Amino acid sequence: MIYPELQCIFVHIPKTGGTSVENALVEMDGTVTVHAHDHRSLWAIDPRRPITSWLAPPSRTLPYLREAARLTRSGKPGPRVSPEDYAHFLKVAFVRNPWSRAVSWYRNVLRDPRHRARHGVTPKTGFSEFLAQHAGRGMLKPQTFWLTDRRGTPGVDVIGRFESLGEDFAGLAARFGRSTALPHLLHGRTEDFRRYYTDSDAALVGRVYAAEIKRFGYDFDG
Asked: Which GO terms describe its molecular function (predicted)?
């Protein structure tokens, strides 16, 4: 999501509180209409297209090509930004404990018929089965996927955490000289995500999301 007045780019990683952040930033900016759920990665937003971004190893390139295809099919490529503005706009994202995030996405899919059809699951699909099929894919791609630019490098300036969403957003608002409170638009159940996991499920998440676990210091207990 692009906010010209704030000179800010918000990278909305799914299930990290981003809908509330998007809408609060829209209100603060005042020059854009609501465009909720802009789940483009920084790679998709970045207007620079060096040839090296297409010559990267397939393991790094293919997920972004799939994202480009998805955006083309949707007909909603999202707001664009000039290379000059991209270079100096503040780039912001929020991250979340990957074990918690996986459970949140699972619950989200099961309660939405459209998501269930898209993911090939039923309301009775268990978490272990869902995780085995979808960990590391689609909206459950590693969070590091969203944080990498077209040059293949981390490009986000400010990274907040879902676990301290209100406090971290207040700090972000202060950078813009605002004191806007963060609305909690999507209310999930407050339950212990760990109860969904078997030991093998927890180990699977640990392997698939090893890079972000190391980078952000997460573990299964928090």
From this structure: sulfotransferase activity
The pLDDT tens digits of the residues spanning 144-161 come to 999 987 777 788 999 999
Give the C-alpha separation, 131 to 137, whole Å. Answer: 10
Beta carbons of 15 and 96 less than 8 angstroms apart: yes
Rounded CA separation 201/82 (Å): 43
What is the C-alpha to C-alpha distance for residues 41 and 64, in angstroms, rounded to an integer? Answer: 8
pTM of this structure: 0.83
The string of pLDDT tens digits covering residues 78-119 is 667 888 998 999 999 999 999 999 999 999 999 988 988 888
Contact 205, 102 (CB under 8 A): yes
Contact 152, 56 (CB under 8 A): yes
